[in-house]
């Protein structure tokens, strides 16, 4: 998700506050299942404050040792650029720098990581305990206004693109904006979606306006994903989360909704506070307030609206709701680790904590085969379908 750049990073209390230890069966299933997390915001932070993610890095939420402890196999690295970076012409360079970072991480630690370019390679590449790193681009800003850049980023390894982020961009309207620019997808956005379909890049509808998602579903018969979203059922009027009727449409098109762990996605009050904060800051900016004034206001707001203390059940509730709504084959996980300022359920603070989620699902009555679908099976199936429908020359 990524908050404003000046949001204070709350350090996570690295998994030390488990309400109860997961059962051995849950731990074993987390290790044995292919866990696919479709949204981890590691690259931008790693460039801002350099960390070697091959080593234990407690101040972060993703690193190799904890990915292994948690049983995480496929960790989608978010190549994130903000709407501001797009508007100031920096998105292209920032995205390419992050792609370089992920690529070099895999090269530098070839025993621990590998870039993942196709779902067909998962079984072969995870041999020896490697954590696989596919890349998803969060915000289509770096594409600029040249359709050829979609293929450029495909060739650099990008396998999904979240068409917009915080602002209405050249491609699509954003769910963060109170008013749309295009009424959904732009004419250029239609070209981008078709080009992504041709190449086999997954269209990610997280962060988009409802109208944009509907436009995409009308335009294509290829499945789409929501790489990191919650269910709006739990957070009324929080447009960033997935509406029930839209979730049904995404599933009817064969897609998958990847549930996020950040408390903003899970809790109605937190979601409301998040919207109010963002909109107030936008209004302050439009009124010409200084960066210092905005930061001071945001700091005070944060103190007055602390993140709620939630537990694994809050995520299981969302998964359970989504499964009942759209079926077991259309739900997965996209944590948003390293992207929500540490505001996460107590038992889901880092990639080491997937066994707690498995434990929660088991306690809710989910069986082994269904848990495997949620953890990664569904996402790999959908990615495989999209790849099979690609028509690269
Ligand atoms: Zn996001």
Automatic annotation (TrEMBL):
Keywords carried by this UniProt record: Signal
Signal peptide: 1-19
Gene3D superfamilies membership: Metal-dependent hydrolases (3.20.20.140)
Entry-linked CDD domains: rDP_like
Keyword set includes Manganese: no
SUPFAM superfamilies (UniProt xref): Metallo-dependent hydrolases
UniProt cross-references to PANTHER family, sorted A to Z: DIPEPTIDASE (PTHR10443:SF12), MICROSOMAL DIPEPTIDASE (PTHR10443)
Protein name (Swiss-Prot/TrEMBL): Dipeptidase
Taxonomic source organism: Noviluteimonas lactosilytica
